[in-house]
Amino acid sequence: PTVLEWLGEVLDEDAVVGVDGRLFSLIEANRIEMFCAQNGFMFAPDFRAAEAIWTDRPARPMNPAFVHDEALAGEDVDSKISRVVDALDAADADGLLITALDEIAWLLNLRGSDVDYTPVVIAFAYVSEDERVLFIDSEKVTSEVKDHLKKYRVKIKDYDDIEKFLGKISSTATVMVDPNRVSDALGQAMICNKTYMASPVIALKGVKNECQIAGFRQAMLYDGAAMVRMMMWLEQNVANGITEMDVDRRLQQERAAYASNRGDSFHMIAGYKDHGAIVHYEATDESAYTLAPDGLLLIDTGGQYLEGTTDITRTISLGNPTAAEKHDYTLILKGHLALARAVFPKGTMGVQLDVLARGPLWNEGMTYLHGTGHGVGHFLGCHEGPQSIRMEANPTPLELGMVTSNEPGIYKTGEYGIRTENLLLCVPACSNEEWGEFYKFESLTLFPYDTTLMDMDMLSREEVKQINDYHAMVCERLRPLLSADEAQWLEQKCKSI
Questions:
Q1: pLDDT digit string (tens) for 303-353?
Q2: Which residues contact 356 (CB under 8 A, 6 or more apart)?
Q3: Nearest to 219 by CA among 302, 300, 305
Q4: CB 235 within 8 Å of CB 292
Q5: Average pLDDT of the residues in 468-483
Q6: For an engineered disulfide with 493, which of 233, 284, 361, 448 has Cβ 3.0 to 4.6 Å away?
Q7: Angle at which helices 101-108 and 77-90 pack, to 10 degrees?
């Protein structure tokens, strides 16, 4: 049962359901309140027991924020806020409350290290035509950040002053509030009018500008070269007792060789054999399998660079691939390739393309239960919106400049998992007067597929050419970053099939 269904079964009539409004969005709190009303329960939205119970709770991180260079961001704060104010005007709203950390980071060209894998700083923000306020712990504000915010007329207030500030907004004003992202406590703190709709920052952030796209390309070069070096090491040591965790540590080491690397963009999934069938598996030193020259290894990993964020999945054979493994790998590859070469009219949503990736599996009575694609932030969250490619409907169309993952997979419990992932950039394809604009994808990720796992009888001429063209591009772009031995290894992996 769901939490609410369970509560309905175990609570007596006239029970009180306490909710800490700081921890539930407006949408979630409203759902609970309606449930209480329907079942004769009392709803208490100000139940704050955490402080009394969790006495040894760690303090909020106080890591310093830092400025994200405008040369990398491609747009200054004034321009971004101006576009947000335009969206407020269109919605007849006077101000916008922003609570999502990635939105704040993008809007103010700030980054931080308060959250593992995602370079954001814990803060709140409020923006209107006349006012720009950042609520942040003063310990995080360096002189560089202070000067940066002053340049763009952003006032700095203490993080804990947010509710008091919201309570003083004029009762005649209208504030735009994203009910999926703003907490119930902050929503209730406002006595002003509220317009409930998705934050305009989500859509603005999702479309990358030319500087950001150039940054993504640079990050892919770094990450592709790091992957080459890690995979060479893996091949040389697979019989020497290395584990799934050793693969993780080695790739972190290779990424860290680049000065702009800021760690991984999520905890690596390195799943050997049946661990690969656990979609979100995270190895530990205790759980990690020791690798051997046999079976499949699924590696899903990503890096954070000042220039951009990466996310790649490759499934490789460590030796002696079976016919079933090759068959399933090729099915996944066919779906991955079909989505990558899609051409579609402007206005197309991800749900309309999802079947391209799933089709080869569906034809054989198989599927996967995760999404095919998610948006990727620019030196921000590895997973972001507003777009997605999945079976569930999402009304957001794919737009030029969006970066989206392409990651079909198949998981055989107790045996192996196979997933292949590249990041795709939405680019123009063609246009005409009668049918309008059409878009297509450009693969940004730079690392070869495993040709030893391909069942050539299952691949069409078009697919073979697509693989060979991709491999030629990978070699051409990565070669300048590699030593002679590394380049030779890559050329062998990318030779024509």
A1: 999 999 999 999 999 999 999 999 999 999 999 999 999 999 999 999 999
A2: 335, 338, 339, 342
A3: 305
A4: no
A5: 98
A6: 448
A7: 120
Q: Is the separation of the CB atoms in 471 and 448 below 8 Å?
A: yes
Q: Return d(Cα 349, Cα 351) in angstroms, integer.
A: 5
Q: Quick one: tokens of 423?
A: 């990041």
- Whether the predicted pLDDT of 436 surpasses 90: yes
Residue 386, amino acid? P
- Rounded to the nearest 10°, the torsion over CA 192, 197, 199, 205 is -160
- The structure tokens 């493994």 sit at 325
Kindly report the CATH number that applies to the domain delimited by 66-204. Answer: 3.40.350.10
Q: How many CB atoms lie within 10 A of CB 112?
A: 23
3 state SS of 50? helix
Return the number of other C-beta atoms located less than 10 Å from residue 29's C-beta: 22
**For residue 379, which of 183, 186, 214 has the smallest C-alpha distance?**
214
288: Cα within 13 Å, side-chain hemisphere: 19
Give the start-to-end residue ranges of the domains of the chain: 3-53, 66-204, 210-493
Pairing of strands 261-264, 193-196: unpaired
The answer to whether 304 and 263 have CB atoms below 8 angstroms apart is yes
CA–CA separation, 370 and 364 (whole Å): 18
Q: Which tens digits make up the pLDDT trace of 211-243?
A: 999 999 999 999 999 999 999 999 999 999 999
* Kind plus residue range of the DSSP H or E element containing 473: helix 461-478
- Domain covering 210-493: architecture: Alpha-Beta Complex (3.90)
344 three-class SS: strand
Burial class (CB in 10 A: 0-12, 13-18, 19+), 55: exposed
Burial of 152 (0-12, 13-18, 19+ CB in 10 A): middle
Report DSSP letters for 92-104, one per residue.
Answer: T-SEEEE--HHHH
**pTM (2 decimals)?**
0.95
Q: Which amino acid is at 343?
A: V
- Which residue do the tokens 């957001």 mark? 396
d(CA 417, CA 420): 10
User: Is residue 309 a contact partner of residue 379, using CB atoms and an 8 Å limit?
Assistant: yes
Task: Record the tokens describing residue 483, joined without a space.
Answer: 């030593």
Contact 3, 28 (CB under 8 A): no
